[in-house]
Amino acid sequence: MSQGLLDRSRIVAAPGWSRWLVPPAALSVHLAIGQAYAWSVFKPPLESAMDLSGTQSALPFQLGIVMLGLSAAFGGTFVERNGPRWAMFVSLVCFSTGFLVAALGVATGQFWLVVLGYGGIGGVGLGIGYISPVSTLIKWFPDRPGMATGIAIMGFGGGALIAAPWSSWMLDSFGADSSGIATTLVVHGLAYAAFMSLGVLLIRVPAADWRPPGPPRTAATARRMITTANVSARNAVRTPQFWCLWVVLCLNVTAGIGILEKAAPMIIDFFADTATPVAAGAAAGFVALLSLTNMAGRFIWSSTSDVIGRKNVYRVYLGAGALLYLVIALAGSLSTPVFVLAAMGILSFYGGGFATVPAYLKDLFGTYQVGAIHGRLLTAWSVAGVLGPLIVNAVADSQEAAGRTGSDLYTLSLFVMIGLLLVGFVANELIRPVDSRHHEPAEGGQAPAEKSEKAEQTAKPEQTAKSEKGATR
Question: 379: domain range?
Answer without folding.
Answer: 8-208+222-440
